[in-house]
Design goal:
Blueprint (H helix, E strand, L loop, with lengths): L1 H13 L6 H21 L1
Keywords: Membrane, Transmembrane, Transmembrane helix
């Protein structure tokens, strides 16, 4: 997971097209985590 974050930071610093996917990926992670929390919480 730490390597993944490091890669995201590198992509962000390089200002590559991948950097545009970072906010999208983080948003998806937050949405999925929230959905799972609701499902587990019942």
């Amino acid at each position: 997971m730490t390597r993944f974050l490091a890669q995201l930071r590198r992509a962000d610093l390089q200002n590559s097209p991948e950097a545009m996917l970072v906010p999208l990926a983080l948003g998806i992670v937050v949405i999925v985590a929230t959905a799972l929390a609701h499902v587990i919480g019942g």
